[in-house]
Amino acid sequence: MTTRYWHYRAVFILIINVCLYASCQHTDLQLCQRCNGTLQNATALGRFCTSVEGLVDGRCCLRNDNPSEAVNVIGLDFSNCNLKHVDDLQEASTAIMIDLSLNPIFNLSDSVFQGFIQLNYINLPANLGCPGGNASWEKVEVKGDSCLCEGQKNVCNQTGQMSLNCPENSLCAPYGPGLFECSCEHNFHGYKCLREGEFPLVLVFGPLAASTVGVSILLWVTQRRKAKSV
Ligand SMILES: *[C@@H]1O[C@H](CO)[C@@H](O)[C@H](O)[C@H]1NC(C)=O
Ligand SMILES: *[C@@H]1O[C@H](CO)[C@@H](O)[C@H](O)[C@H]1NC(C)=O
Ligand SMILES: *[C@@H]1O[C@H](CO)[C@@H](O)[C@H](O)[C@H]1NC(C)=O
Ligand SMILES: *[C@@H]1O[C@H](CO)[C@@H](O)[C@H](O)[C@H]1NC(C)=O
Question: Which protein residues touch ligand 3 with a CB less than 6 Å away?
Answer without folding.
Answer: 129, 134, 140, 142
